[in-house]
Amino acid sequence: MSTGNTPGGAERHLTHIDESGAARMVDVSEKEATARTARATGRVRVSPRVVELLRGEGMPKGDALSVARIAGIMGAKRTPELIPLCHPIAISGVKVDLVVTDTGVDITATVRTADRTGVEMEALTAVSVAALTVVDMVKAVDKAAVITDIQVEEKTGGKSGDYRRGGS
Amino acid sequence: MSTGNTPGGAERHLTHIDESGAARMVDVSEKEATARTARATGRVRVSPRVVELLRGEGMPKGDALSVARIAGIMGAKRTPELIPLCHPIAISGVKVDLVVTDTGVDITATVRTADRTGVEMEALTAVSVAALTVVDMVKAVDKAAVITDIQVEEKTGGKSGDYRRGGS
Amino acid sequence: MSTGNTPGGAERHLTHIDESGAARMVDVSEKEATARTARATGRVRVSPRVVELLRGEGMPKGDALSVARIAGIMGAKRTPELIPLCHPIAISGVKVDLVVTDTGVDITATVRTADRTGVEMEALTAVSVAALTVVDMVKAVDKAAVITDIQVEEKTGGKSGDYRRGGS
Amino acid sequence: MSTGNTPGGAERHLTHIDESGAARMVDVSEKEATARTARATGRVRVSPRVVELLRGEGMPKGDALSVARIAGIMGAKRTPELIPLCHPIAISGVKVDLVVTDTGVDITATVRTADRTGVEMEALTAVSVAALTVVDMVKAVDKAAVITDIQVEEKTGGKSGDYRRGGS
Amino acid sequence: MSTGNTPGGAERHLTHIDESGAARMVDVSEKEATARTARATGRVRVSPRVVELLRGEGMPKGDALSVARIAGIMGAKRTPELIPLCHPIAISGVKVDLVVTDTGVDITATVRTADRTGVEMEALTAVSVAALTVVDMVKAVDKAAVITDIQVEEKTGGKSGDYRRGGS
Amino acid sequence: MSTGNTPGGAERHLTHIDESGAARMVDVSEKEATARTARATGRVRVSPRVVELLRGEGMPKGDALSVARIAGIMGAKRTPELIPLCHPIAISGVKVDLVVTDTGVDITATVRTADRTGVEMEALTAVSVAALTVVDMVKAVDKAAVITDIQVEEKTGGKSGDYRRGGS
């Protein structure tokens, strides 16, 4: 696998596709089980009326954000069921934060493991499922909500090294 | 439920939260089982190198987009498992299209049902899971891929009427 | 199926086991799809210290009960995956209430459908999963928590008629 | 995590809720993967007619208890899907025993692992799912069955040490 | 869809692939929800020693066949999760029979529904999962067990009409 | 467990059934986590018309085989959910190959792990789910397709040693 490496740890090919074009779950049995983390973020843009409701103006906001937070945590655990070529791994911790801003909801998920693959996909899945749950929660009030800017901010651990968005 | 309606079918409150703030799965047993559709879109922004690979330059692109398409279809079926307050419904058709553009992958999902609730969440989930799968597929080459602009474009059927993004 | 009926709608045999003793999922295709409800209750007995914590004394109780409520709702949807001979049905509404008492947490789940089988098992599963989640939440503080008195209180709809616990 | 410890290994706070009240999956990556066991018990109280049927009087009891036993074993594997903040762990063994008594069915589940968290929740879930399956099996004959006294009897392994119900 | 029909109800094309070659879940919302059944069979060939064990010679056969029967029933319910383009449908009854012969285990599954698609895939999946479970049960004794001859024997209902293997 | 061993590593009893006949998930916590592989094969026999279609004669074959390949990979991950007494294990790689022959589709699955149990069941499940997906894909054209000859070809690793079909 190393021959395809460019400086900085990036592969030059789609590793999930073999030379004949067939999808496969890449063998990671040679990789070391080490501490790894990933942090991903995303946003849901909603109408001003929804921002009011999520801030609890005019009615108890109650479980609204809790539902999305819990859905995100549970979603992280389902990553290998959803994404065909993801390895099943032992997630050792998940945190999902939701912050209501003037234009929507900012979501951050942090996932930890001590396993053979990184947890970027788990963090992105946690953000995505939390975002979908926010949209579900508000869709009767605002059909035009948009999920946007879901991306990895940072990862640590593993052979390809640490990564920080916007850094080197 | 009708008293909270504003013109155009929008509710004024978060219907998934009761007056005490507790989350609930809203009772839809009184709703009619009718033909309903929803179409959602989204995009994954990737590096130029990934665009080349997804277009099959330098290697067979093979299953790359197929994996995402199938993951999206299967993801639509898992919507009620992922989103806590979604009703389990009988999806009667799903189509997921992926188009490689100069800056990434455009994703469209169309979902149909003949059941008691709309399928907007199913369409959004199909797009989200397809997008996550694209990111998984390319992440060894491009760690900075971004999922963006996931939104409902159109829905038909149901009591709240048809909806078209940007229309009335 | 009617020949085995006793007055009051009870069968005299285990309907899920055929005459040779083999388990089967009973055919319900002849049953009518009608409105049905079920309400089940249960309790988790916990230590006085846990009661304080769940009431928010000394720390924010925050999501503690929300997590159990949401787990109960999601659990109801998983009933046919967990209970081998349960039919997959279209749940049309779920409500899970948790009340902190002086000795623990009282749980009530109400489930509705418009389908071919009753939803008693869905209501009991919602209560059970909510109760397990309460135990998980408090187990670091109180290893001796007990789940108890999980039972159907009431059901309506279906050919066997309405049932109310302690009634006829 | 140690500062909150009381003598005997109990925490003083709900560890699954952070200082702001938000639910999280606690990070266990620092915990050691060691041999751990848990044993949980519970009971289903049923009518005398059901006791007869489960003992095979008047018809073959056949698969009745097998279905519950197998459901319990499979339920243990689903614990992290059902209980939002449970870690996915590698269960290495499960045993579920059901004994028909004069008043119902006594259930015992023993779960083993060699992983980073205890398996109390897995054992309690196995008992709960087995109990729900018994209720499903008998509900056509006895609508009033009650699931009761689900509790951890014993656990071994892990930093918080061994626990035996009624002991110290 | 009718133009591609040959006499006898067979299509001339792969209906799950559209004209561009993309997989899709075919829209069945126009199909009628009617009573449908399917029966599928299959076999597991095992060694003489395993035949003895499954017949209970020298040890109680106990749950051996029950486990496979229950796995088959539960497997039928999971068909739309396993097979990407299968529609989620409301199964209304499942029966799985296992018969020990001199050379192995014969498996028959019968599935019923009152929904928009046939249940051939559900019946085939029930047989497959039951067969896999038999192999799992005996593999410590006989590593060479073979699953074979899994096929639809009969179907009724639906627009394409009844089908009987070897018939017209 | 060793006392029941015959030469060559075969057990003389059904290890998944205890002395009373009750099913159990065997405790593997004492087994070593080592590199293990398994390769299984199977076939789907289809009509000449289907062979033409799968070879892309007269229409783009497109995703037809991709869907089955991906379903097989995802199926391998679901093995412990489908087969009641299978341990949940960390699969570290899966490869599913499909080859169209003159009489059908030959399927091979190779699964790797670094865990406490072998992966024969995962490889067999991958083949079975891929085969079921092929049948689903072609069933509108050929109702008589047959899944056959699903078997383990080879395994390596683990205490019982390597195995090669037809070898010693």
UniProtKB/TrEMBL annotation, chains A, B, C, D, E, F:
It comes from the Bacteria. Its EC number is 4.6.1.17. It is an enzyme of class 4 (lyase). The keyword Iron does not apply. CDD domains: MoaC_PE. Residues 10-20 have a biased composition (Basic and acidic residues). The keyword Lyase applies. NCBIfam families: moaC, PRK09364.1. Catalyzes the conversion of (8S)-3',8-cyclo-7,8-dihydroguanosine 5'-triphosphate to cyclic pyranopterin monophosphate (cPMP). Belongs to the MoaC family. HAMAP family: MoaC_B (MF_01224_B). This is Cyclic pyranopterin monophosphate synthase. It comes from Wenjunlia tyrosinilytica.
